[in-house]
Amino acid sequence: MKANIVIFIVSVFLSTLWYQATAQITVLNLRTELRSNPIGIDVAAPRLSWQLQGSGRSIRQEAYRVLVASSQEKLDQNIGDFWDSGKQLSNNSTHVIYAGRALQSRAAVFWKVKVYTNKGEGKWSDVASWTMGLLHYKDWTGRWIGFDQYFPSDNEKTGQLAARYFRKEFTTTKQIKQATAYIMGLGLYELYIDGKKIGDQVLAPVPTDYTKNIKYNVLDVTKSLSQGKHALGVILGNGRFYAMRQAKPYKVKTFGFPKLQMQLMLTYTDGSTEVIKTDDSWKGTTEGPITANNEYDGENYDARKELTGWANPDFNDKTWLKAAFVQEPGGNYEAHSEGMKVMQDIAPVSIVKKSEGKYILDFGQNFSGWVKMTVSGTCGTTVTLRFAESLTEDGELFTTNLRDAKATDHYILKGGGKETWEPRFTYHGFRYVEVSGYPGVASKSNFVGRFVYDDIPDAGAFVSSNALINQIYQNAWWGIASNYKGIPVDCPQRNERQPWLGDRPISAYGENFLFDNANFYNKWLEDIRLSQKEDGALPDVAPAFWRYYSDNVSWPGTYLLIADMLYQQTGDLRILEKHYPAMKKWMDYMQARYTGSGGIITKDSYGDWCFPPVTIEAGRGKIADKKYPSALIATSYYYHLLQTIARFSVLVSNDRDQADFLDRAAKMKIAFNVAFYNDAGYYGSNSLTDNLLPMSFGLVEDANREKLSNRIVEIVEKENRGHLSTGLIGTQWIMRTLTEIGRADLAYKIATKKTYPSWGYMVENGATTIWELWNGNTAHPKMNSQNHVMMLGDLLVWLYEDLAGIKSKERAFQTVIMKPQVVAGLDHVDASYKSVYGIIQSNWSKSKSAFEWKISIPANTKAEIYLPTTELSAILENNQKLKNNTDIQILRQEKSGTWLTIGSGDYQFRIK
């Protein structure tokens, strides 16, 4: 009897321990296609991801089970009628591909996951969901409507159209269970139901080449509808559909007049359905208050023409025209649940009265978006808002660098009291606003800046003991966000705003540490793929709003580098599988056309674009867009891309291609060194870029590496006096290459310079973002954007991977490699990054007496970390002497340090 009691007590005790271990494991942050509960996706087999969380260290997933169901009620009963994966022995918690029943258009899908770990079995996660979009062309029952013509309210000469207003009334006689709107409003739209705007998206949909693909939005409008009479209203703006400039059709692609297709899907509580769709029962007008709208030039709004109640039932639309059926744009329809929003409101820091009714607002920060204004005055008073990034010496707007973009909004008052207005279909890049014609006395409280960019959350944080680096980091954040406009534009202010491929090959890599931008760049990869010509050519701008197909390597090669970044940072193999054929086609195209007799790629367009003049004086007032084509750049880049696509070929199970690519690369390496290496120990023209590229890409023969390393150091240290001398190309590789050859101290010196040319020089001269040019304060204003990202190069990558020591070794941070560069002059770095597995943190500091390092590694991952000492007795972990255990193992020792492998969890190391 006593034995049975003992057995019972032990059993209860063990069960309690098992329960506690189980209860400690939580599954959270369930995402479908890297989105949280997305509405309207059109991926037939979506990718599912989740994260693990639990107390303790070294938590590893050993298996999982996913349930996918048609209702939450079924999931509550643990029934996966769409898919039950069963218990899968796998540590994979990212991009698990749905493998259940074929999903139909508009299906509502619910899912949850349970994990089994080395620390016990977790509980079922909370339920997540997604809905399917319209998967087939036949699912769209409406027609495209619009007005394919100019009206007296339009200005054909200047390329500004009045907004198109469309409306439709309908009545529901039954109780509504679910209502979903599917809408394509080109170029831009706002949707209203019963007078209220639907959703918080702005400048929707995101831009594409509309002859290739069109992004539609899916909006849940159930709460906006009830049984009874209703009205739909849609305003259409120009966007990129009706191009901002119409005068150069050979260069600028335009798609026609704004148009609309939408359908409202109603499901009633009795199970019946109804569709309200675009057809010729809709009515429209161009005689509304938005009399002109244009991305470059701004928006004109005449409040006297407001159509009060136009999107409400029983509005008198007798003077409106019958909507016309118009030709469809031609592109495939694709769901897109992300887009731009007003992400932040910014109050002006000062307002200066220049004359009666004229003021200059200073928002203290260069950003992109618009201004929301409150004003009172008499009917017909016009208030004009002009936007600029900087001021002249006499305190007026400096607008020369806008080229012919007017960047001006006009508002005409209706009178009768307080009026509040903001534009709908334009945006500006600015810090300063000139307000003229303002009635009465203006104050800062009458204006608010609205910061607009894609709805992308922050992914990282970085702060160091160096205030200048911290400011450069902040400037980079503002510049990157400002240029997220559904596509990665080069600048937000002048008459360009184009998604140049050459601006983003490595800066996008750094951006990923700051922003959760995987879906954003996935979309851009598709823009690039769809812009490919039949023969394989890729453009310099994608979507190809400008018809530039100059056939070079370094600009279109961004296609491969962005795909590589996304795979390395997120582990999504499907990206490579989808784009590999187009990448291979372009690689073959370039080699077939531009390989010279010596095996060198002969074609280049831009060279080391915008390298800095030797001195400010040498570049003062000069136009910096001169091109210096370089066969060395073209060939070295092509070699690097051969190595890259060879890796891709293995990942997509195409080993035969790998052998071919590697053979081509080996031959090109020989040809490159014959053509460009000088026995004096340098390459090409002996510029810093010409030497950086072969070193970074592995083109240097082993016997020559030390000599070339010395030459690179000599250029930076002696000839440049610690500055860079690189343009867009060289700056992408300079910081990491210096670090790889053992001179992180030189990279740090470059990063902390305040004199020309440097990032710090921009800060010292008042920059709050990143300039287009190193000498941006003195160069010719024709090409002088004060909000660009192309000159960031690999700085942000270096800050995270080298200074902070947060870098993926394999499987998108499932193994993290951490080797912070503890350079002289820097005493502290605190950084974090939200990987697909969770937050990785690295917080180190040094003093005369010790080096301290706090590390946090998410569950289901591990890290290889480097401590800068070989004396194991000097290392303390959580104030205990270092020793091998289940969480920490000594991996190896090198001349100056020790490598450890650690499991997930929180650690605190100290070296005395």
Automatic annotation (TrEMBL):
It comes from Sphingobacterium athyrii. GO terms for molecular function: alpha-L-rhamnosidase activity. Transmembrane segments: none annotated. It comes from the Bacteria. Residues 458-802 form the Alpha-L-rhamnosidase six-hairpin glycosidase domain. Its EC number is 3.2.1.40. Residues 174-336 form the Bacterial alpha-L-rhamnosidase N-terminal domain. GO terms for biological process: carbohydrate metabolic process. Residues 805-875 form the Alpha-L-rhamnosidase C-terminal domain. PANTHER family: ALPHA-RHAMNOSIDASE (EUROFUNG), ALPHA-RHAMNOSIDASE (EUROFUNG)-RELATED. Residues 353-453 form the Alpha-L-rhamnosidase concanavalin-like domain. The lineage of its organism: Bacteria, Pseudomonadati, Bacteroidota, Sphingobacteriia, Sphingobacteriales. Pfam families: Bac_rhamnosid (PF05592), Bac_rhamnosid6H (PF17389), Bac_rhamnosid_C (PF17390), Bac_rhamnosid_N (PF08531), Ig_Rha78A_N (PF25788). This is alpha-L-rhamnosidase. It catalyses: Hydrolysis of terminal non-reducing alpha-L-rhamnose residues in alpha-L-rhamnosides. Keywords: Hydrolase.
